[in-house]
Amino acid sequence: MNALIAENLAHVQAQIEAACLAAGRTPGSVRLLAVSKTWGPDAVRQAHAAGQTAFGENYIQEAVDKITALRGLPLEWHCIGPIQSNKTRLVAEHFDWVHSIDRLKIAQRLSEQRPENLAPLQVCIQVNVDGGATKSGVAPQDLPALAQAVAALPRLQLRGLMTIPEPAETAAQMHAVHAQAKALFEALRRQGLPLDTLSMGMSADLDAAIAEGSTLVRVGTAIFGKR
Ligand SMILES: *Cc1c(COP(=O)(O)O)cnc(C)c1O
After folding, report:
1. Distance of CA 116 to the CA centre of its chain
2. What is the Cα–Cα distance from 161 to 154, expressed in whole angstroms?
3. 162 close to ligand 1 (CB < 6 Angstrom)
């Protein structure tokens, strides 16, 4: 198992690098977030031993147990799952990043509950680019107001956007939805928000996401195996 996780990580890193080169981007301009949801502390330890430092989690309580068990390691923890109001304190106290901000109330609670002895919580706003009706994420037309409000919260630092597009039928559709996210990101930057993180791309759409300007891709299965 140990060798396998290291091998998988090397493979995904090589794929990211190839996608960067194909898109005329600097290798190293795209970070890999290893999504370790459902996997135990040992799998994370193995990935860390292979050089991985940033880990993504969806389920808050499961993540908090893991973060606590691995306290001795210099890891960076990213919350990428939906957050209920009654879970904001756990998130504020344990994570370094949150990608899944989709309403102001959650952001306000995270800011209020972020402990003083920790750095500001680094956050992205989840945007529903392709308009899936039942999906979480703020609608594109509501994004500018939410971004300005989140950027003003004292204990949060707004870093960018996250998207989770529906599986696309064609490569062209996949590129189009990522290009839309990139355009929203650039529009916010033009409004003066100093954003540097576009969290988009998973195993299936990694190449398209990188071609369209992703700065962080989130990969689970290709590193840890099938859940
Ligand atoms: C689970 C998950 C991933 C990783 O998905 P894999 O198919 O395991 O690579 C990425 N982003 C989010 C938001 C997820 O929930």
Report:
1. 24
2. 19
3. no
Work out the widest C-alpha separation in the chain, in whole angstroms.
47
Q: Is 156 in the pocket of ligand 1 (CB under 6 A)?
A: no
Q: How many helices (H) and strands (E) does the chain have?
A: 9, 8
| Ligand 1 atom showing the smallest separation from residue 33 Cα | 10
CA of residue 41 relative to chain centroid, distance: 20
Q: Is 202 in the pocket of ligand 1 (CB under 6 A)?
A: yes
Residue 2 is predicted with a pLDDT of 57
Instruction: Classify the phi-psi angles of 131: left when phi > 0, otherwise alpha if psi is within -120 to 50, otherwise beta.
Output: left
3 state DSSP class of 140: helix
**Domains in the chain, CATH or no CATH each:** 3-224 (3.20.20.10)
85 in contact with ligand 1, CB cutoff 6 A: no
For ligand 1, mutation pick of 125, 126, 218 (most atoms within 8 Å of CB): 218
The string of pLDDT tens digits covering residues 95-121 is 999 999 999 999 999 999 999 999 999
Residue 125: burial class (beta carbons within 10 Å; 0-12, 13-18, 19+): buried
Q: Are 221 and 11 in contact (CB under 8 A)?
A: no
Q: Residue range 166-192: average pLDDT?
A: 94
Q: Report whether residue 153 contacts ligand 1, using a CB cutoff of 6 Å.
A: no
Average pLDDT, the chain: 95
Q: 77 phi and psi, to 5 degrees?
A: -110, 130
Do 185 and 151 form a contact (C-beta atoms < 8 A)?
no
d(CA 10, CA 193): 34
